[in-house]
Amino acid sequence: MNADASKPDRALLAQFELPAPGLLRMVLTDSAKGVVNIVEVNPTADGAYAGFLGAVEAASVSLPLQISCDFDHVEGRATARKTRIKAVLASACAVNSAKAS
After folding, report:
1. How far is CA 14 from CA 63, 100, 101, in A?
2. How far from 25 is each of 3, 10, 59, 66, CA to CA, in Å?
3. 49, exposed or middle or buried, with CB in 10 Å at 0-12, 13-18, 19+?
4. Residue 21, pLDDT score
5. What is the pLDDT of residues 76-92, one digit of tens each?
């Protein structure tokens, strides 16, 4: 354990960004290994969360997941990875929709 017991020694960080309209990118980083995957999808596509969730689960099912976004997103209280990723997609869709209008 590190000096700050509230933070785990190792975690997955999913950094979401909207580089272009209709494109959501996740850079998945393992704090011990560095970047482990980059996934890009259209956030409005059916089942768009599956690519992100698959990458996260393939990297580790046991490491805690931290999420950051370069757009407005409120994390909320959800703990399930699928629910948290779907919330990011909803936020991304809202941002894209606001930009389009």
Report:
1. 12, 26, 28
2. 33, 22, 17, 15
3. buried
4. 86
5. 888 899 999 999 999 99
Nearest to 10 by CA among 73, 83, 58, 59: 59
Cα(89)–Cα(72) distance, rounded to whole angstroms?
11
H, E, C per residue of the chain: CCCCCCCCCCCEEEEEEEEECCEEEEEEEECCCEEEEEEEECCCCCCCHHHHHHHHHHHCCCCCEEEEECCCCCCCCCCCHHHHHHHHHHHHHHHHHHHHC
pTM of this structure: 0.85
- pLDDT at residue 74, as a whole number: 85
